[in-house]
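Appendix B, record 7
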Amino acid sequence: LLRMAEQAVAGYREEYTEALRQLRSSHLAVAPRLVHWKVKEHFVELSAVLEELAQAGHLSPAARDTVASFGERLSSVIITAALVLKGIPAVHLDAREVIVTDERHTEAAPLVIETYAKVRRAVARAGVSRIVVMGGFIGAAENGATTTLGRGGSDFTASLMGAALSADEIQIWTDVDGMLACDPRILPGGRCLDVISYEEAGQMAKFGAKVLHPATVLPAMRQRVPVVIRNSRNPEAPGTRIVETSSGPAGVVKSIACQGCQIALVGEDVLLDETLGSRVLNALQRNGIRMELRETCRSVFSFVVPDGRLHDAVVALYAEFFEAPTRLPDARPTKHPVRAILRSRFLLSGTRLSRFALR
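Structure tokens (predicted):
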């Protein structure tokens, strides 16, 4: 979508019109005939937006948000129709009708009070006997302009909806089994954490855990709604449950998070372990790795290692604080695999408003 917008403003009319044609065909090929008319309406609107961009020769943040919104708008309409054809009562809800944001395009912040009021009214009205299906990531400013919530916006939407409705549980469906004890891009084979606290999850996300954006847990934390991370490629896995207070003894390292050359050891009241600093220092020194202490707080002990030694440091720390990995990498860190499974995400709520799932 964004590539088409960039081609339009650059004057590559033939390229973007062909890309638009292919995109339209692919959506109509998978969309139930029940909503072909709606899908076609969306592409008429998208075509008009691209034409305006071609004439203007400029892609503003507001226009970028408008173009980007079509992905969630189209996919959620298609999923709603698919559920109906399977005999599951469902109704589509346009996120722009309920997610109210400020006017910071591409990085909009939800206006919580206004959003919660609209969500409760809309879902109560639409979801009495039907599943409500809504795309994430998008919203609308109070002036009606389409906005997007930025990185992690779909997960953030799920958290907002679950908190607004005081759901029993918020589910985030992704491509890993849950929150892992170590960054899988650096050291595959780390164990999955069963239960962690909101604070631990937020710190892990802050220090580089890509499975969850730091902002995601905030609405759930305020309303004390559990968040569960599940794997859509492995639905039998129980995942990680994020709650107000995690079980288990305090002062235990639960996860090794990484951001650049900075490593963070995360755990509830992790600094209660008076041997923590010496254990880290000894584990690194045995491997000839220097460290420079950085941020420490109740749940985080972080430090920096030299360039090129991150992988070795993580291996040494994992051996010190956890069991040996089930599979050690034989190469340096590679780019994180494309999360293609998350290209289409949907927010579903049951009749009893007890569960929210994001795919």
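Remarks on this record: The CA atoms of residues 147 and 203 lie 27 Å apart. The two ends are 20 Å apart (CA to CA).
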